Amino acid sequence: MSDEQPPSRNSPQKSWVDKISHLLTGEPQDLEDLLEILREAREKRLLDTDALSMIEGVLQVSQMRVRDIMIPRVQMVVVPKDAELETIMPLVTEFGHSRYPVIDGDRSKVVGVLLAKDLLARILENKTLKVHEIMRLSCVVPESKRLNVLLKELRTNGNHMAIVVDEYGQSAGLVTIEDVLEQIVGEIEDEHDDHEDEGYIFQRSSNEYMIKALTPMDEFDEYFSTHLATDEYDTIGGFIVSQLEHMPKKGESLIVGAMKFEVIRVDSRRVHLLKLKIIE
């Protein structure tokens, strides 16, 4: 057995032996080598930017875990297991999701999943039916599960959503197959997204707005009569990252004066959508 150790992916610099070996073999020795080859291919126009971005996303997904992208339980839209179907219709209509975690008492105890299509089919038969009578079993995964493994399991089992549990078996949040795919292909918008508007800024109420992260700073300042633009960033998404000094996670918030920003959609490379609430 050879005593040689494989080159570390985290090594800041390769030794001269590694460099010579790479030159002689022409093969990537680690993940960073592989990415460098792919980026060179893009520069030579053998790959386009979108293709490279997706390949990078695939490679990154294999290293990320469920906890990195899950929706925290405090942000889950849930329904009580003992609620009558008629009483939850306003909530289902308001949010327009296809699936809702069913809880027993509080959000840490998810006991099933309610499908909107099941609700619509059964409510016509009997409005007084309880949620627990038509809910389905939930797919449960640990926070530590790798995203590539989760994606394979969701596809194999035909599940679109999984409940994430912590080390004590309590609900920590949820993750959908769309959340995982967005780490590979970027933002996926659907017909229920409020922000699917021709402009950058969509007003939801008198003090709440949905804002695309690509909104130019000049346009943001003009709309809200602010003076946030500088030469350091061009968009409101860049402003948020600059203020936080890291790539935020979904649900992370930032208060600037009388404005509270909340990150609604983000992938491993950039912020996509923000919610802005004017604090009264």
Can you give me a brief rundown of this structure?
GO terms for molecular function: flavin adenine dinucleotide binding. The radius of gyration is 23 Å and the shape is globular.
Strand order of the largest sheet: 8-9-12-11-10
| CATH level 4 superfamily of the largest domain | CBS-domain
Order of helices and strands: HHHEEHEEHHEHEEHEEHHEEE
| Distance separating the two termini | 69 Å
Protein name: Magnesium and cobalt efflux protein CorC
Family: Belongs to the UPF0053 family.
GO cellular component, one term: plasma membrane
GO molecular function: flavin adenine dinucleotide binding
Explain what you see.
By secondary structure, the protein is an alpha+beta fold. The protein has 3 domains: 33-63; 67-185, Roll (CBS-domain); 201-278, Uridine Diphospho-n-acetylenolpyruvylglucosamine Reductase, domain 3 (2-Layer Sandwich). The chain has helices at residues 16-25, 31-43, 49-61, 85-95, 116-123, 131-134, 147-157, 177-185, 217-224, 236-244, and strands spanning 71-72, 79-80, 99-104, 106-115, 139-142, 161-165, 171-176, 201-205, 208-212, 253-256, 259-266, 271-278. The strands form 3 sheets. Strands 8-9-12-11-10 form a 5-stranded antiparallel β-sheet, covered by helices on one side. A 4-stranded mixed β-sheet has the order 1-7-6-5. A hairpin with a 1-residue loop joins strand 3 and strand 4. Helix 3 (49-61) packs across helix 8 (177-185).
